[in-house]
Amino acid sequence: MKYHISTFGCQMxxxxxxxxxxALDSRGWTAVPEDEAQVFIVNTCSVREKPEQKVYSELxxxxxxxxxxxxxxxxxxxxxxxxxxxxFFERFPFxxxxxxxxxIANAPNALERLAEGSDEKVALLDFVSLYEEREQAxxxxxxxxxxxQAFVNIMQGCDNFCSYCIVPYTRGRQKSRHPEAxxxxxxxxxxxxxxxxxxxxxxxxxFGLDKGGVGVSFADLLRSVAAIPxxxxxxxxxxxxKDIAPEVIxxxxxxxxxxxxxxxxxxxxxxxxxxxMKRRYTRERYLSIVEGLKQARPDIALTTDLIVxxxxxxxxxxQETLRVMKQVEYESSFSFKYSDRPGVAALNMExxxxxxxxxxxxxxxxxxxxxxTGNSLKKQVGNRTQVLIEGVSRRQDGGGTWWKGRDPAGxxxxxxxxxxxxxxxxxxxxxxxxxxxxxxxxxxxGEPW
Length: 449
Ligand code: SAH
Ligand code: SF4
Ligand code: F3S
What we know:
By secondary structure, this protein is α/β, with parallel strands linked by helices. The protein has 4 domains: 2-124, Methylthiotransferase, N-terminal domain (Rossmann fold); 146-259, 2-Layer Sandwich (Transcription Regulator spoIIAA), CATH 3.30.750; 292-379, Transcription Regulator spoIIAA; 384-444, CATH 2.40.50. The chain has 13 helices and 19 strands. α9 (246-254) packs parallel to α11 and α12 packs parallel to α13. Bound molecules: S-adenosyl-L-homocysteine, iron/sulfur cluster and FE3-S4 cluster (F3S).
């Protein structure tokens, strides 16, 4: 069958889609652009209202395409699938499979049965209480991305129930993977040529602290993965501040291939708001973690997530968020207007902030972030670094070919190189020559490796 996957949401969803594509390819299916597909798979996100709405408009478009493809059908996976479940079968009759993130391990077989006509409709919506290992390619057959970067799941789900968040309802309870399974997958990827790994979970710092735990902490796991020979760069996401262990902070000063960057969601700088969000840390505690990280690794680039307009957020609360932003000097941040989600505790919290006020706060916050990002990028000019090339840059002027990559902190660096192809996945020693608004320009200073 010819299939097309469209993916919304976080890196975990992106990673799930990549796994699903590999599993379908190994069954002889072929990934094709949307206008050639017979089977349409939509991997969905429910974290705010907007991404959820996108799913319905995507399905509307697919309905149009399926009119001319009698053997065709659609499958909906991920967080909206978990939330809406069989409701999709009624609203969109051409949807024949819904699967949540715990059900994804069985989605490839279900898709095969549906394509053969042996099943009519399938719902894979049960939560599991232990991490279910998914089939993996072995030995010689491992295909890696040209960029030589890879993601590895270390857990699934979340137990935190922050009062605004739907994720614990859509991804179920936290389930850590067995550390040996994680390390084995990492080893296999590095053996196959991967040089940058990102460990993934909703809350990596509480790895091992659930039923699936075997006494190996996240810091232990980090050390074991970092020690894999040939691994040039190691990252992880996402970190909940309340659970970050001193050993993880210290690791930034000890593990050479652990990249100097950390995504540490703040959400709000006001203790009153943090309390209502059920984040279980204070501004002071957050700032002391930042202090520790900067001591361990002075060049660490911090990024964050922020919500404006949480119910009851006053102008003064918002000002506190701006103050923390200035103090921490985030390299960049994702910021969102609070969005009511079904079933979460904040749904019933009052007073709601008006949409106009929330938009105004978001603009002010993003303006401040742009200024901070600009300053931070300017400080990089003159520095020497290593750029892992991810592909040809959109920018193409002057001599040579412009390539785009990232420095160890994750900043985008554009380099003009004499090579027209073959640079993706190589590390290029470079010096930063100029700062743009959201990226850096550099020049090559040594041989790519
Ligand atoms: N597990 C991650 C977050 C995953 S959701 C963590 O705890 O850091 C990604 C981001 O979406 C969150 O950090 C939060 O900033 C935002 N978010 C979640 N629910 C939201 C809501 N109801 N309205 C607006 N933003 C929300
Ligand atoms: Fe959502 Fe909080 Fe869990 Fe992150 S830690 S996924 S924000 S409940
Ligand atoms: Fe979205 Fe689900 Fe990820 S709600 S952010 S796809 S965990």
